[in-house]
Amino acid sequence: MTILSGTEFGITLGTPIGLFVPNEDQKPGDYASMSSMPRPSHADFTYLEKYGVKASSGGGRASARETIGEDFFFLFFS
C-alpha cells in the first residue's frame, strides 16, 4: 500500500487521503461456480437482499478493495 496524498510527515492534512493498493492476485474465475449464489461467510447475501444485485466477479461493495480504506483508518488512527 502506498499513501498518495492527504498526509505529510505522518500527520493528516485535512484533505482526502489517497491510497494505492495493488491487486496482483485477482482471480475472477475462482468465483464462477458461485455466480448464482452468495459466497459462504461473506456479505454477498446481505447486499443481494438489500440492493437486489450481486457482483458475479467476486467484487462488490463488501470486497477487500472496497473496505481497505476502513482498515487503513482503524490501523493508523485508532
Search tags:
alpha+beta, elongated, two-stranded antiparallel sheet, 78 residues, 2 helices, two-stranded antiparallel ribbon, 4 strands, single chain, 28% helix, 14% strand
Description:
The protein has 78 residues and is an alpha+beta fold. Helix content is 28%, strand content 14%. The relative contact order is 0.15. The chain contains 2 helices and 4 strands, in the order ββββαα. The chain has one domain (2-77). The longest helix is centred in the C-terminal third of the chain and has 14 residues, at 64-77. Strands 1-4 form a two-stranded antiparallel ribbon. A two-stranded antiparallel sheet has the order 2-3. It has helices spanning 44-51, 64-77; strands at residues 2-5, 7-8, 11-12, 18-20.
Short characterization:
With 78 residues, this protein is α+β, with helices and mostly antiparallel strands. Helix content is 28%, strand content 14%. The chain has one domain (2-77).
Count of helical segments? 2
Give, in spatial order, the strands making up the sheet with the most strands. 1-4
Spatial extent as radius of gyration = 16 Å
Shape: elongated
* Fraction of residues in H or I helices: 25-40%
